[in-house]
Amino acid sequence: ISDSQDVMTPAELIAKLEEAWLNEKFSPELLENKSEVVECVMEQLTHMESNLQRVKKGDAKASFHRMEIDRIRFVLSSYLRSRLQKIEKFFPHVLEREKSRVEGQPSLLSPEEFAFAKEYYTNTETYLKAVALKRMPLNLQTVDLLKAVPEPCLDSFVFLRVKEKQENILVEPETDDQREYIVDLEEGSQHLMRYRTVAPLVSNGAVQLI
Amino acid sequence: MDPSEVEFLAEKELVKIIPNFSLDKIFLIGGDLGPFNPGLSVDVPLWLALNLKQRQKCRILPPDWMDVEKLEEMRALERKEDAFTPVPSLYYMEITKLLLNHASDNIPKADEIRTLVKDIWDTRIAKLRLSADSFINQQEAHAQLDNLTLMEINTTREFLLDSLNFMFKLRSNLQPGSSKGQLTDY
């Protein structure tokens, strides 16, 4: 757990989880995993739940805590589900990205997600082989899953809100007779543009997908 | 995003309630609330306010902007301007709907409020449809939409983004040798 986690209040932690949830929901590609946030949130929830076990039934405060726990659980589950959906959808590419990651770069997948992705890959291979490939002529019995499975479309459009002012963001033209131009992203403003241009800004938290 | 998920986010907004019970401060993960004393107003998130109201443990106070005169002014301004005017709250639609559905007895002139907010919403959605239409027609690559709320964006999100992405792929396919035109599952 990095130093920055120590000074984060629980409220800030929950805010970070919600930001991660929205970014993951609206981004066309799988984003860096936020396992530290997930782990800290799980800790908070387990701690609160164990407190509630010790409280007698019908306690007024207990219902408030329970409702809040349910809300946080929903966001957490939805976030993890979003990621699993993308892992399943882009599994060969996700594994490839993780394999070619250099030392020191944050990982794309949590250890559990990595295990899941590998299993999914093996299962898909086995399935394709058993159902179709083994009946093919010998020279057609392999499938390059990296080629067969479509990559995420980074040119998808996204809505975003600017958290930290950015200057001179290049907007590429849609058609050949248009020219590229630059825009400044003012803090608090909202925009609609291609994901590819803003992907690094989502990564470093300068913009929030909405 | 499902509208109920937008509503979920809206439920974090703080509203003033007048509780009819006593409770000392509670320390939620998201922040501290209370203490609660009968007759004294306290700020709580909307999700809690609604729950307490349903259990008849409080009265909810309408937000400052939920006032007939103020909304009439906003409606007039919205109808006059071509651009989107600033909204009283990022979640004005959701808050109005939730309060009018669950606490209309606490909202003076609830019916008028309902109509006014709906009129403002309708005007804005009509503007949004025009903007989206022109965005696609002009094949723009960027748009700034500062005063739009999440719920408004969400009404057009799926259709607009899918259309833009699909058009991009069709256009990319016109360029020989481009790999960008992969048509994924639709």
From TrEMBL, chain A:
SUPFAM superfamilies: GINS helical bundle-like (SSF158573), PriA/YqbF domain (SSF160059)
Entry's localization field: Chromosome; Nucleus
CDD domains listed in its UniProt record: GINS_A_Sld5, GINS_B_Sld5
GO BP term, pick one: double-strand break repair via break-induced replication
Nucleotidyltransferase in keyword set: no
Alphabetical UniProt keywords: Chromosome, DNA replication, Nucleus
Domain GINS subunit: 64-130
GO cellular component, one term: GINS complex
Cross-referenced InterPro entries: GINS_A, GINS_bundle-like_dom_sf, GINS_Sld5, SLD5_C, Sld5_GINS_A
Signal peptide segment: none
Domain DNA replication complex GINS protein SLD5 C-terminal: 152-210
Similarity-based family: Belongs to the GINS4/SLD5 family.
Role of this protein: Required for initiation of chromosomal DNA replication. Core component of CDC45-MCM-GINS (CMG) helicase, the molecular machine that unwinds template DNA during replication, and around which the replisome is built.
Protein known as: DNA replication complex GINS protein SLD5
Protein encoded by which gene: GINS4
TrEMBL record, chain B:
UniProt keyword annotations, A-Z: DNA replication, Nucleus
SUPFAM superfamilies in UniProt: GINS helical bundle-like, PriA/YqbF domain
GO cellular component term, pick one: CMG complex
Pfam family, one: PSF2_N
Gene Ontology biological process terms, A to Z: DNA replication; double-strand break repair via break-induced replication
Residue ranges annotated for the DNA replication complex GINS protein PSF2 N-terminal domain, each copy included: 2-61
Keyword Nucleus: yes
Major localization class: nucleus
Ranges for domain GINS subunit: 65-167
Subunit-level organization: Component of the GINS complex.
Family, similarity comment: Belongs to the GINS2/PSF2 family.
Reported function: Required for correct functioning of the GINS complex, a complex that plays an essential role in the initiation of DNA replication, and progression of DNA replication forks. GINS complex is a core component of CDC45-MCM-GINS (CMG) helicase, the molecular machine that unwinds template DNA during replication, and around which the replisome is built.
Protein name per Swiss-Prot or TrEMBL: DNA replication complex GINS protein PSF2
Organism placement in taxonomy: Eukaryota, Metazoa, Chordata, Craniata, Vertebrata
